Amino acid sequence: MLNSLRLKPKTERRLKSGHLWIYSNEIDTSYTSLKSLTAGEQVVVEAASGKPLGVAVVNPDQLICGRLISRSPSQVLDASLIVHRLKVAMSSRELWYPHQCYRWVYGDSDGLPGLVIDRFGDVAVIQISSVAMELLRDDIVDAVHKVASPSTIVLKNDGKLRVVEGLDEYVDVVHGQLQDDCAPLIENDTRFMAPVIHGQKTGWFYDHRENRAQLNRLVKGKRVLDVFSYVGGWGVQAANHGASEVHCVDASAQALDWVEENAALNGVEEKLHCWEGDAFAALKQLRDAGERFDVIVVDPPAFIPRRKDVKAGEQAYKRINQIAMRLLNKDGMIVAGSCSMHLADDRLPDILRVLGRELDREVLIQHVGSQGADHPVLPAIPETRYLKAVFARVLPTR
After folding, report:
1. DSSP tag of 268
2. pTM, whole model, 2 decimals?
3. Which of 45, 275, 325, 326 keeps 20 to 30 A from 101, CA to CA?
4. Residues near 71 by beta carbon (within 8 Å), at least 6 away in sequence
5. 30-38: which pairs have CB atoms within 8 A and are 24 or more residues apart?
């Protein structure tokens, strides 16, 4: 028998409209004591009238204290439901991506909050960021076996979200083995080895796949600069699609080693040049050296991790794109990216507009991209749509 979580009057409207999150200040604490609930527990969510609204997993210590996992009050998240949801998620991805390389599970959007699974062909990388999913870890691993039968399964359970949830961090290959701690993948006809053990997040960022495909159409014969390159997702693909020369900038020497290895996988190592160092400082050095590029990709980590960081983060986006614009040839293109959920959709184009006026350049926005189909968006939860990529041609002022 599940405990109940009763809401205050009228707060159920958001859930009925399609949202899945329950905030701690929406709970009728005279009926439900949050202190009586255990992190990871499944509860029946009730409207103020007592009418059941579904089942949620809870963490009473968090601002978002509950996440709805079913609209049926009798449907709990168990091994059977996990298998079913993995099958549904897989079928939607395979409509789009033929190489079995995709984000297989994207948390709330796939009815599995606190869970991310990336698939690299025969390798599955699982990332758990909530107590509820950690309690179901063995069921999740078993479900991955049943649905996909991968040769290798990795638990990449590290990162800030686990710390927030009070969970230990660990990385473990729970089935099979890896080659050099990496997993092979193909994206936009380009081969990579993703560092799934020692790399960032799951080792790869599938979210920009469609934006990289757009760029690949534009780089033939161009001189390209990839800033915050990580393992070369943008840069190596550009070289593989005809760029004459590609320069990759990253603060991590290890990441640049991976760039070189991935370039070699595709036979384009002679086109690649790597610059190790802080991106802001490296771009200034390139400017001082008189370097110029036809295409520049600026895809930084999240400059706005929390809502209170919006002002400082927007300034950071402005600074890095300003320096990049100064490195463009007269008829150059900048691709300004952001993975900051808290950056409003209209802000990055507006930042480029302001920079154009300050630098006496004409900015023409030709394409605005977002995340790919393997990061599906729940319309009621705008936070599930976080990625931005603005393609802008930068011309002399007319």
Report:
1. -
2. 0.96
3. 275
4. 53, 54
5. 31/4, 31/6, 32/3, 32/4, 32/5, 32/6, 34/60, 34/65, 35/60, 36/3, 37/3, 37/5
